[in-house]
Specification:
The protein is α+β, with helices and mostly antiparallel strands and 673 residues long. It contains 22 helices and 11 strands. The longest helix is centred in the middle third of the chain and has 36 residues.
């Protein structure tokens, strides 16, 4: 393990030591697989050590800081990061990401939107002249950008944005305006206090015509003193459920003028006279959002992995209640009910991690095709990324709450690490596209795929199952059969095929009954969202199985990962049994087999539970949890943490003298009253 682990510096809890000794596989082998190979693991650990050993990044626990102090702290460390990355000559993007994540723990750099969305938008949406002008400034942090899209009245519905950019040919300028209160930009990250310019999404008007949402480079503040430019009104939107150091902002524009050249023009242009030249595909303008969504998949998997690490280690350390009168209190991880909370989420964490790898690979392939001028797979990328972003975020969100509850009362404390994790994941269920809306976007693509399949057209690999009707009955005759990975994949394929086609059928029937297209679509929402969900569930199961089949590993590790894969698939079947009972694909007896095997797999996974979370290889400093410490020394460190509370810095709090003492020393009230 890394030297950053507290377990190497202190005595390790006996229960955790025993858990690690009983593992049937080497956790480091699994770490290599998750990272993509031993060299990548060694590189990641080396870079993490650089950040963890740097005293310049040490800060007080954010839980004990005011919001102003939290923001000041993140600004200090973010700007320090820019200097450190140059000093260390870390030029590789992956190396930079690792260093930044490690240095900031669970927080985000004030440059995260700038680096993660604004720079990629300039790289993919700007023409060559714009790149020469803006990219060097962005890469050298001469400008700090925010991605300004969401409005007070509009979020995921990008086409409904109200901010206007009207072309004035007499001055060769666009005039930016916020015509209504609801057009106020709301939520963009690091906009409130940090950013001095932005990539703005606004409705383009020219020659009296509206041409839809486009991206513009808009300066917001003076570059020399950070004061707001004329016509720009900006502020912080206030405290949130989580990620409190982020100055999410609002912004209003009043006749703000920018040059014609500030329209990002790789795919669309406007002539000096106002003539508009549209892109080959209007979805090209949303490419930046697609890249952001793909990045979110890995983040959600990582957050859920952290939650699994905390709750599993704590469950091995925590002892509670007597199984037999007068007997030793057992580790709570030995309770079957606790295992049912922990192990399915552990399986989800690995399933989502492998799915994120798969989506990233496909995204990179399609992005390369787009750069080469081939946009034929753009709809596939949008359909895949939208659904998987929603499915992954919600899975992680729900899983973290189960894991928090599994830690009992201590899980409610910020010392557990769960409030920070939950604050991140619950935010991105709605950020960069709200769950239901994105699921409907994937459903729209699925409906198109059903129509293409009916006409004999070839579909992309992830959607190709829609071209062939699957078997109508589950072939499993015994509980051993129900564990077969191919049987499990086929069950999910059948479920997805049936419910995607059912959604398409409901929509078609509505239209054939005379309903307008938009009414039929709205009346089919329940079926369409379900279709997208089951498609993503099938994709994740299929990918987990393919990952097992295509990856070299030792037999002990293969056995453990196979059990996790089986649990992920079976738990999903049990949770959605009605879908497979409804059309008779599975019988009640087969569902009983599924339940029995879920229970049996809990016992199979139990000896390797701690080793499986150790394989995530998350240093204590990044985990940010006393409950999940590698050394398991929970109670003494909870007590130490509590003592650091600002409320404990004086023996008598000032409020006693102001309020309590006058009450306590007042003349006693007559008892008869």
């Amino acid at each position: 393990m890394m030297s950053a682990y507290a377990g190497e510096k202190h005595k390790v809890n006996t229960d955790l030591l025993q858990e690690r000794e009983k593992a049937s596989f080497n956790p480091t082998e699994l770490t290599y697989i998750v990272d993509g190979g031993p060299q990548k693991t060694r590189r990641r650990r080396y870079i993490q050590t650089l950040a963890l050993n740097d005293k310049d990044f040490k800060e007080k626990d954010p839980a004990f800081l005011s919001r102003d102090e939290q923001y000041t702290s993140i600004v200090r460390r973010s700007t320090l990061l820019v200097k450190k990355l140059k000093e260390l000559n870390l030029t590789d993007v992956s190396d930079q990401d690792i260093y930044i994540q490690t240095a900031l723990r669970m927080e985000k750099s004030i440059f995260s939107v700038h680096d993660g969305i604004v720079i990629p938008m300039l790289q993919t949406q700007a023409d060559e002249t714009q790149k020469k002008k803006w990219l060097p400034k962005a890469l050298n942090y001469e400008i700090i950008g925010s991605y300004v899209q969401t409005e007070l009245g509009h979020g995921t519905f990008v086409r409904g944005l109200e901010t206007t950019a009207t072309f004035d040919p007499s001055n060769q300028e666009f005039i930016i305006n916020s015509p209504t209160l609801t057009s106020t930009k709301w939520w963009p990250g690091y906009l409130g206090r940090s950013a001095n310019c932005c990539v703005l999404m606004a409705q383009l008007y020219s020659q009296g015509k509206k041409y839809g949402v486009h991206a513009f480079i808009v300066p917001l503040r003076r570059f020399d003193n950070h004061e707001l430019l004329q016509g720009v009104k900006i502020g912080d939107i206030g405290p949130k459920l989580g990620i409190t150091s982020n100055d999410n902002g609002f912004c209003k524009f009043e006749n703000v003028r920018i040059p014609r050249e500030n329209l990002l023009s790789k795919y669309t242009k406007i002539d000096p006279d106002g003539t508009y030249h549209p892109p080959k595909n209007d979805k090209l303008v949303y490419a930046g959002m697609v890249l952001s969504r793909v990045t979110i998949l890995s983040l959600c998997a990582q957050m859920l992995a952290a939650g699994c690490t905390i709750s599993t280690r704590y469950s091995a350390v925590r002892r509670q209640t007597e199984l037999t009168p007068g007997g030793e209190e057992p580790q709570i991880i030995n309770y079957q009910s606790q295992q049912l909370k922990l192990f399915p989420q552990l399986a989800v964490a690995y399933a989502l991690r492998f799915a994120a790898h798969s989506v990233r690979r496909r995204c990179d392939q399609i992005q390369a095709d787009i750069e080469a001028g081939d946009i034929s797979s753009l709809q596939e990328l949008h359909g895949l990324s939208a659904g998987m972003k929603s499915f992954t975020c919600l899975s992680a969100n729900l899983g973290l709450e189960v894991l928090r509850l599994s830690c009992g009362g201590h899980g409610y404390s910020q010392a557990s690490g769960f409030p920070a994790l939950y604050g991140v994941v619950t935010a991105i269920v709605t950020a960069d596209g709200e769950y239901s809306v994105l699921m409907l976007q994937t459903a729209r693509y699925l409906v198109k795929c059903v129509a293409k399949a009916a006409s004999g057209e070839k579909l992309p690999h992830s959607f190709a199952y829609l071209t062939t009707k699957p078997e109508s009955k589950c072939p499993a005759k015994s509980e051993n059969d129900i564990l077969d990975l191919e049987v499990l994949v086929n069950a999910y394929r059948h479920r997805a095929y049936r419910l995607v086609n059912e959604a398409a059928r409901q929509l078609t029937q509505g239209i054939q009954a005379g309903k307008p297209q938009h009414v039929a679509w709205n009346d089919s929402h329940v079926y369409l969202i379900k279709a997208a969900d089951v498609h993503c569930h099938y994709y994740t199961v299929m990918n987990f199985v393919q990952y097992l089949q295509s990856t070299e590993m030792s037999q002990p590790l293969r056995d453990v990962l196979t059990s996790l894969c089986q649990l992920y698939a079976l738990y999903g079947i049990e949770s959605n049994a009605g879908d497979l009972l409804q059309d008779g694909y599975m019988s009640g007896k087969q569902i009983s087999m599924v339940t029995n095997q879920v229970v049996a797999l809990l016992a199979v996974i139990r000896p390797n539970a701690v080793a499986l979370v150790d394989a995530f290889d998350i240093p204590d400093e990044m985990l940010g949890s006393i409950l999940g410490r590698y050394d398991g020394n929970v109670y003494e460190n909870l007590y130490k943490w509590a003592r650091e509370s600002p409320l404990n810095q004086t023996e008598v709090h000032h409020s006693y003298h102001e309020y309590l003492k006058p009450l306590l020393t007042a003349s006693p009230v007559d008892a008869k009253l």
